[in-house]
Structures are given as C-alpha cells and as structure tokens.
Amino acid sequence: MSAQFEKPEKSRFSEDEVLRQIEQAVLDHRLAPGTKLKEVQLADLFGVKRGMIRKVLTRLAHSRLVDQTPNRGATVAKPSVKEGQDLFATRRVIESAILQTLITRVDARKIAQLRKLLQQEQKAYQRGKSEKALALSVDFHRQLAAMAGNSVLEEYLNDIIRRTPLVILTHLGDDEQNRCRNQEHEAIIDALEQHDLKTATRIMHQHLLHIESKIQHKPEKPQADLATLLRRQPETMQT
C-alpha cells in the first residue's frame, strides 16, 4: 500500500480494519485532538459505506478516542488537564502492579526480548524515524504487561495507552522531549534483570511523572486536511 489510503477495487476494508487504522493514526500523533472526522470523507477514503464509518466512530467514542456531539458530528477527543493527569496517575499504579507481577516471572529470554525491542527503538530515533520510535516506545510498555501474564492489568493498560497520545498532543505538543525516554526503558530492563523491584518501580514512576508533571493547557494549532492526517508512513504500518 502506498503512503496514502487507496480505494480498493474489489475488496473493502472491514470495520475492524478501519477502526485500527484510525486508532493507529491517533497513536502515531497524526490525528490531533479536535480534528473533525467527517463520515462522508472517511467513507470515501476507505471505500466503505457511511454506515460502517458511523459504527466505527461509535466504537471509538466508547473507548474515549472520539467525541460525538448531536448535530455537530465526531471529532478526535480532547482530554482535559485533569483527565490527562488522572490517566498518568492511573498508569503509575497499573504499571507498578505489572512490574510487581513480572518480577517473579522474568527470565533471560524475556530480558533478551525487551533489549531487542529497546535496540529497535534506539535505532529508530537515531535514524530520525520518530513515528516508528514512538510506536516501539508504546510497545515496550505493552510488552511488559504481556510478559506479566495478568490479562486484566494488560487490558486496563492498553485502554489507557490508547488515550495517552491525545493527552500529550492536547497539553504538551508533539516535541520529542514530551515522549517516553528510552534511557529509562533501559534502566527498567536492567533492574528487572537484577530482580530489583524497588528500583524498577522507582524508575517507572519517574518515567511517567516526567510527562505527567508537564501537562498543562497549550495554544491550538491550525488543523491540516483529514486525508493528509490519515496518510500512513511505511515504517509504522502494522500487520
């Protein structure tokens, strides 16, 4: 697929595929908070019927990625400062519990997997592929949850992570200094390898507080065209 969505000639995108692609555009910081999501334009971009787009937007609203207002349509959600702070405070609690569970299960194989993911993240930053680096940074936290083996904690974390980019874009901006610092990812891995729960938890708290403490109102920027915002970069495409 090219960098821009193309209408399929025979097959159509499924509802889940449309939802995933819009959701990924949010995670990649391509869809900014407040962006209008017009049913007609989205249906044309994906080559599907408006009814499917309506269902997708309803599902996204249920997960709080989209705001739906009667007679005004749907827009990408804009979390309040309080909501953003609450999300990161909740992440600190959940990710601490994940580390507490993981510390009893971690082994050399898991550590090797985490270090490989960290290397990929570092290479992406070095090569200037910020969107790919961001996706890998998010994957690091998801991988910790998956390795811990608690499906409830993993589900809660994934729900919050989906909303985190909206908080960052609404109140911090798209500067790289407002994203995860992979040096701290490395320090967390080192602590896990030593089975040092206290250090791993302290670094995770520090890691998340770095962003949480900076959440504040920021001026809005002009919005680009929806079709442009939904363009996908090849390095961030996921199967």
Structure description:
With 239 residues, this protein is mainly alpha-helical. It has 2 domains: 15-77 and 220-236, Arc Repressor Mutant, subunit A; 81-212, GntR ligand-binding domain-like (Four Helix Bundle (Hemerythrin (Met), subunit A), Up-down Bundle). It contains 10 helices and 3 strands, in the order H-E-H-H-E-E-H-H-H-H-H-H-H. It has helices at 15-27, 39-46, 50-62, 81-102, 108-126, 130-148, 151-171, 182-193, 197-212, 226-229; strands at residues 36-37, 66-69, 73-76. Strand 2 and strand 3 form a beta hairpin. Helix 1 packs across helix 3 (50-62) and helix 5 runs antiparallel to helix 6. The longest helix is centred in the middle third of the chain and has 22 residues, at 81-102. The chain is elongated, with a radius of gyration of 19 Å. It starts with 14 loop residues before the first helix and ends in a 10-residue tail after the last helix.
Helix-strand category: mainly alpha
Percentage of residues assigned to helices = 55-70%
Shape: elongated
Q: Kindly report how far apart the N and C termini lie.
A: 12 Å
**CATH homologous superfamily assignment of the largest domain:** GntR ligand-binding domain-like
Report the CATH C-level class of the largest domain.
Mainly Alpha
Can you list the strand order of the major beta sheet? 1-3-2
Low-pLDDT parts are 1-11, 234-239
Q: Provide a count of the helices.
A: 10
Can you summarize the main beta sheet? 3 strands, antiparallel
